[in-house]
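User: As part of a screening pipeline, I want to sanity-check one entry by hand. Below is the sequence and the SMILES for zinc ion. Please return the complex as structure tokens so I can compare it with the automated output.
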Amino acid sequence: MNKTTKQPKDQKPVFECEYCGQQTAHKSYLNHTFGRVPNLIVVANVETMVCGNCGQSYLEGEALAAVDAVLKQPKKFTAQHSVSLAQLAA
Ligand SMILES: [Zn+2]
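Assistant: Here is the complex for your manual check:
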């Protein structure tokens, strides 16, 4: 208990947020949807930066390029899956 540990092992790495500039962004793997029904594309497990300070979530670098590639040639990268889709009346 006398030791002072500077960096606890279990601490998640944090990054500087692109929006608010605070060291409060962390990586998270989220599903993103693009387009709209019936041409909806879901990209699963996208490495996403999520800021705990301002709440922004955004893609960076490789993840952004990978998603761009999918959206440019959706047929090449997507497989048809059955998805439960609910649409609320506008
Ligand atoms: Zn932020």
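Points to compare against the pipeline: The mean pLDDT is 89. Helices lie at 61-72, 74-77.
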